[in-house]
Design a protein that fits this description.
This protein has 568 residues and is α/β, with parallel strands linked by helices. Among the domains are: 4-84, Urease, subunit C, domain 1 (Roll), CATH 2.30.40.10; 98-221, Diaminopimelate Epimerase, Chain A, domain 1 (Roll), CATH 3.10.310. 30% of the residues lie in helices and 23% in strands. The chain is built from 18 helices and 27 strands. The strands form five sheets. A seven-stranded parallel sheet has the order 11-18-19-21-22-23-24. It has a six-stranded mixed sheet with strand order 6-5-10-25-26-27, with no helix packed on it. It has a six-stranded mixed sheet with strand order 12-13-14-15-17-16. Strand 7 (52-56) and strand 8 form a beta hairpin. Helix 2 crosses helix 7 (229-244) and helix 11 (349-361) crosses helix 12 (373-389).
């Protein structure tokens, strides 16, 4: 990594920044560690740049110039020369699926790969699965990057795994590619009707093709043998390792069960989990939720700042529709590339109103997945109704996750209602090849509309939606600023008028994410008194060429003053 460290062990002073520094007279001012000679983007209100920071008892006690930082060096202080490297606050990943990310790391990796590579991985997994009586499970395929851009077929999997069930979820998580064995086990035939909120794709002869959309997936996925407790433990730790390597110090987990939260708590108690998690309670699956589905969370009540501010559960997650890629996002008018089809709404207005009302009464933040303009319009209306009936506390911070396609007249309503559009910048550059086909040239003006939302007064918490997308936050940095995919197309950006500035990009991955979790007073910027979460980068995101943003690497990740990842 190249940064020089010096532990001070009972000597009389230390050389720092070319000067000899004596110990401070007041032992209470002595830092545990001082990092100096850096380009430190504090991301505070004024977006100031510092040269040095000091840490004591897990919190920042100073951020400023090198000379003043010397006053905090004392006996036992660890001094780190950043050698000019860039530092930002610990990245707050405001939307991912933490357990699913870990589970994916233990399964078939299909993320955006060519179909031939995915089929080869299934073929390789088949002998072991057959011998052990296991399923072949994976995630990440996307037909939009394949030649012909067509949904896959069950016969392609049957040729490789005829007698072992195969379930490969699409990258969005709203469709599954399954083989005939899995259809058989799920009891799915040509006569099986579509469940509410889902679709069994069938061919011209009425036979299931092997692609299941949204709630139809449950007919098969509910049969997949659950992970063992040891597999769950390994998955949760694998997800942590992945995130720390990218400088992510806080992750918003978009939906876990009470049982999964219990597993997290065990790992915090043992000291194995160090990352900070902001967890949303979920009823499980992609189907509709009964009115009593969240009772366990409401009976427990919000839990804030457990395990030294490492675990918070104060939000519940709902689904209003599906995904644009699977054509299950709920649109108010028919899809431009599928006449007569408007997607798959999950709830009638009164049903989702009752769910949000319960959350509000129980003191929980409400967060709802809404991608199509129909789902976003419904949720803004429902939120407005609930907040009108229960106005206190005014600082509710209700969220809409994704907010991908929004009526132009609905865009100002986010800021007016105080509803946060929690968006993922990588979705725009991943979806650009199909999004306009789905919604046409007029509706696309309200799609992935970061600039319109920002100019209307909203703040945008950012994230990856992993494992829907790769978790790498620097891909999000690049997408936010350039509106180009990682191959650099289209030149100049896709609808470039919606780009973020670099300052907005950094805020969206730090203090805006902290704000979305009611945690801006303790994290999201490098300021005295806040948790000492920060990351050292190999290049400066404010000044490097924009094409290099996607290539940034984390060199050092620090949580609460403890170095939890180092790239040597």
């Amino acid at each position: 990594m190249g940064m020089r460290r010096l532990a001070v062990l009972g000597i009389l002073g230390v050389m720092m920044g070319g000067m000899f520094v004596s110990f401070p007279a007041n032992a209470g001012d002595v830092a545990d560690a001082v990092y100096h000679n850096g380009t430190i983007h504090t991301i505070n209100g004024a977006f100031e740049t510092a040269q040095a920071l000091a840490v004591k008892d897990g919190a920042f006690i100073y951020a400023g110039d090198n000379e003043a930082a010397l006053a905090f060096v004392g006996e036992g202080t660890r001094v780190v020369d950043l050698e000019g490297k860039a530092v930002i606050p610990g990245i707050v990943e405001a939307h991912l699926h933490y357990p699913l990310l870990g589970q994916m790391l233990l399964q078939v990796q299909a993320h955006w790969k060519p179909k031939e590579e995915i089929l080869a991985a299934v073929k390789a997994a088949y002998p072991v699965a057959k011998e052990n009586g296991e399923w072949i499970v994976g995630r990440g395929w996307n037909q939009e990057v394949w030649e012909g851009q067509l949904f896959p077929l069950k016969e392609e999997l049957d040729a490789l795994a005829p007698d072992v069930p195969v379930v490969l979820r699409r990258t969005c998580g709203h469709a599954a590619w399954v083989n005939s064995k899995a259809l058989e086990m799920g009891g799915i035939t040509r006569d099986t009707p579509d469940p509410q909120g889902g679709e069994i794709i069938k061919d011209a002869q009425g036979e299931p093709t092997g692609v299941l959309i949204d709630t139809a997936m449950n007919l098969v996925t509910n049969l997949i043998p659950p992970f063992t407790e040891e597999q769950h433990r390994r998955a949760l730790l694998a997800a942590q390792e992945e995130l720390l390597g990218y400088g992510i110090t806080t992750a918003h987990d978009l939906g876990s069960s009470m049982e999964m939260i219990g597993r997290m708590e065990k790992l915090y108690e043992s000291g194995d989990l160090k990352i900070r998690l902001y967890v949303m309670g979920s009823s499980g699956g992609y189907g509709q939720s009964a009115e009593d589905a969240y009772n366990a969370f409401y009976e427990m009540g919000p839990r804030i700042g457990l395990y030294d501010n490492r675990l918070t559960v104060r939000t519940v997650k709902f689904f209003a529709d599906g995904s644009l890629g699977a054509r299950s996002a709920w649109m108010l008018e028919e899809y431009s590339d599928k006449p007569g089809h408007t997607g798959n709404p999950r709830y009638e207005d009164e049903e989702i109103y009752q769910l949000v009302l319960q959350a509000r009464k129980a003191g929980f933040q409400a967060s709802t997945h809404a991608i199509g303009d129909g789902a976003n319009h419904q949720m803004l209306n429902v939120y407005e109704r609930v907040l009108g009936e229960i106005p206190e506390p005014q600082d509710h911070r209700f969220r809409i996750e994704h907010a991908q396609v929004v009526l132009l007249e609905d865009i100002p309503r986010f800021a007016q209602l105080g509803v946060l559009p929690s968006m993922q910048s990588v979705h725009a550059t991943s979806d650009k090849n199909m999004a306009e086909d789905r919604v046409g040239p007029e509706r696309i003006k309200g799609a992935y509309a970061w600039r319109k939302l920002l100019d209307a007064g909203s703040i945008l918490p950012n994230g990856s939606d992993a494992p829907v997308e790769l978790v790498n936050p620097f891909h999000g940095f690049y997408a936010a600023v350039t509106r180009m995919d990682r191959e650099g197309t289209p030149e100049g950006g896709w609808y470039p008028e919606e780009k973020m500035t670099r300052e907005e990009m950094l805020r969206s991955f730090t203090n805006w994410g902290a704000y979305a979790g009611f945690e801006e007073d303790i994290k999201g910027s490098i300021e005295t008194g806040k948790l000492a979460d920060f990351v050292v980068l190999d290049r400066d995101p404010m000044n490097c060429p924009e094409e290099e943003l996607k290539d940034i690497q984390a060199l050092l990740t620090v949580i609460g003053g403890a170095e939890v990842f180092s790239r040597h």
